[in-house]
Amino acid sequence: MTTTQVVNPATEQVVTTLELVGADETDAAIERAQRAAVGWREVAPGDRARLLRRFAEAVDANLEQLAQLEVANAGHTIGNARWEAGNVRDVLHFAAGIPERLLGSQIPVAGGVDITFHEPLGVVGVIVPWNFPMPIAAWGFGPALAAGNTVVLKPAELTPLTAVRLGELALEAGLPDGVFQVLPGKGAVVGQRFVTHPAVRKVVFTGSTEVGKEIMAGCARQVKRVTLELGGKSANIVFADADLERAAATAPYGVFDNAGQDCCARSRILVQRSVFDRFLELLEPAVRGVRVGDPADEATEMGPLISASHRARVASFIEPSTKVAFTGSQPDGPGFWYPPTVVLPEAPSDRLLTEEVFGPVVAVVAFEDEADAIRIANDTEYGLSGSIWTNDVGRALRVSRGVEAGNLSVNSHSSVRYWTPFGGFKQSGLGRELGPDAALAFTETKNVFIAN
Ligand code: NAD
């Protein structure tokens, strides 16, 4: 049996040692899920709803424990970690509304009746990254279970603890054996088996675009359904007519939240040239004011990066020639710290403008007018998220329609609500999670004609 050491990124101390699931156990779990799927789809809608509600209540009763686990395992600030555990509860409550509302259609036809059903797929494999271990897991397993599927879930190697606890809570809440199983293990072993095992009928993958492409290619061999939530290089566009004070005060939180390890991070700030210098003047105190430190401290706004190797990768983006405008603070001592960093790249081809850093580094560039802002915002293979700051409603709408991204916010940086759709354009992903149609990503539409 292979084991892995779970390390606290704020202290570099070992939190615990965990056994990793191997290939044979993965197969056994998938087969258990396949057997459980037969009964789970037959559970009456009201009863499935009740079980999901109980699961939500179990998460709520253990919210503080889950949050503390995430602080220790992922270095998330305690405020964020509580929000994340609360998000799992809310996604489950939302999902509990699905079984009784999974409506088909009755379509007018001659000579009989035509009706559609939303049939569950069977076993769904959910593969989760390390940056938001709890919410991203729930966005997959909540609606998948609600639609009558069973779920095998693989957390990231670095952050398995909250997922393992959620698996226990599902059982305590009364979900039948085999309906929801958490399999901590390696991507190349457990995750890969979700792709190749024929009983897994859909893979929901959140992670890097590079691995996502491999997953998609692997799934193609069995015409397996996929939802992909991948990388981002989102733009925060600030027009001269915006409330500049508010735009500058909030910009750090639009990119440095979770230490920039956020697929929705607004890691490019595009500022209209006429207010560029003024915006930087306002941004500097805001960045220096970000409270970086012990994630367990209630006042902390930014914690450490996830690992030493990830910190080295983030640091590699800052070269001797990089023009660094200013940086924020970072604590001394152990922990994988990196300060909030603002850079001013000049060439559009600069890696800092084209690649996802996935750390607390933001690039600020100038634009001339609306068309130029949209052109720069779209000059990327990604298209996940973004913000537009302006007091002109018409401009807000025109630019929102022009930017190729799945999740935009005007005069705010909010991206995710469990009842609104979430997902990416272009190489940021395929399909949507959450929102009113969440369950339809986990069903096949079946059309039945009944002759008179
Ligand atoms: P990653 O691609 O390295 O790993 C993601 C998951 O895939 C992990 O569980 C890993 O074990 C597994 N995996 C790795 N190789 C695999 C393989 N060959 N087969 C099957 N599974 C495999 O990504 P990461 O470093 O954990 O996460 C960071 C990335 O995730 C960033 O690019 C970020 O933008 C992206 N992300 C996207 C969203 C979104 O919703 N669009 C949300 C969060 C993170």
Strand count, sense and barrel status of the largest sheet are:
7 strands, mixed
What share of the residues lie within helices? 25-40%
- Terminus-to-terminus distance: 60 Å
Provide the CATH superfamily of the largest domain: Aldehyde Dehydrogenase, Chain A, domain 1
CATH class of the largest domain: Alpha Beta
Task: Tell me the total number of β-strands.
Answer: 18
Number of helices: 14
Strand content: 15-25%
Give your account of this protein's structure:
- With 452 residues, the chain is of the alpha/beta class.
- The chain has two domains: 3-230 and 428-451, Aldehyde Dehydrogenase, Chain A, domain 1 (3-Layer(aba) Sandwich), CATH 3.40.605.10; 235-417, Aldehyde Dehydrogenase, Chain A, domain 2 (3-Layer(aba) Sandwich), CATH 3.40.309.10.
- Helices cover 38% and strands 20% of the residues.
- It is built from 14 helices and 18 strands.
- The chain has helices at 23-40, 45-61, 63-74, 78-96, 133-146, 161-172, 187-196, 209-220, 244-256, 276-288, 308-315, 351-354, 370-377, 393-402; strands at residues 3-7, 14-19, 106-107, 112-120, 123-127, 150-154, 180-182, 200-206, 225-229, 235-238, 268-272, 324-327, 341-343, 361-367, 385-389, 407-410, 429-430, 443-451.
- A hairpin with a 4-residue loop joins strand 3 and strand 4 (112-120).
- It is globular, with a radius of gyration of 23 Å.
- The model has no long low-confidence stretch (mean pLDDT 98).
- The site of nicotinamide-adenine-dinucleotide has 31 residues, from helix 7 and helix 8.
